Amino acid sequence: MKQALSEKELLKILVIDDHESVLNGTVEILRKHYPDANFSTATNANNALDRVDNIQPNIVVMDLSIPEFSGFKARPDIGVQLLRTLMKNYPNLNFIIQSAHVRTLVRIRPDIDSHKGGFTVADKSLATQEMLTRVDWALQGLTHTKDIKGIHTGLEVKPEWLRVLTLAFEEGLQDKTIAERMSISERMVRHYWSKLQDALNIYPHEGKNIRIQTEMRAREEGLID
User: Fold this and answer.
1) How far apart are CA 3 and CA 59, in angstroms?
2) In what order do the strands lie in the sheet with 119-123?
3) pLDDT, tens digit, 9 for 90 and up, residues 102-152
4) Low-confidence ranges of the chain (pLDDT < 50)
5) Please, what is the angle between helix 186-199 and helix 210-220, to 10°?
6) What is the dihedral of CA 27, 113, 118, 65, to 10 degrees?
7) What percent of the chain has pLDDT over 70?
8) What pTM does this model have?
9) Tally of CB atoms within 10 A around 206
10) Residue 71 burial by CB count (10 A; 0-12/13-18/19+): exposed, middle or buried?
11) Which of its termini does the chain have fewer beta carbons within 10 Å around, N or C?
């Protein structure tokens, strides 16, 4: 999981949407929540690639139904391909997908599973506050994909995630020691936690310890004794 940015620090946010009214509305909502952030916008895939390369944003807020170039027809597959390219080129970049076509993300499930940055999804019908919560989660490096229909067809847990569970809850090790035992970085350990918690449908809730919730759910699922 990517290290969380300090609260309300200066951010660089890129918003991608081909509908000007939606684009401006999204920027306005985000500006109220992050008043000191720097905002950039893009209306097509080609323009978005240039923007990311030039400004190196902390987070990308994007629709999926966008055109490849200005004047071309908007299609969800264009946004999906753009997202795949961005995740490949910028593996630690944070994303929130704000779209009416989130179901198309199931096509790139392996890319989402392996992405190291934050990745959350918000259908365009979602309430504003809930959308902002998912922006915050993405900036914390968390993954939230339960709204993608069909992406979790039964619990699927990778061997490395199970190893983290075992070392943490059966041997009582902290992330630094887990990283040493697995010969990986602490950041990768945190990434595994995020992916595991998403698979278990566990997300941050005020007043609750997410690691304890993870342990309880993992034991319920039989992942650890």
Assistant:
1) 13
2) 38-42, 12-16, 59-62, 94-99, 119-123, 143-144
3) 888 877 888 998 999 999 999 888 899 999 999 999 999 999 988 776 555
4) 1-4, 8
5) 60
6) 0
7) 92
8) 0.78
9) 4
10) exposed
11) C
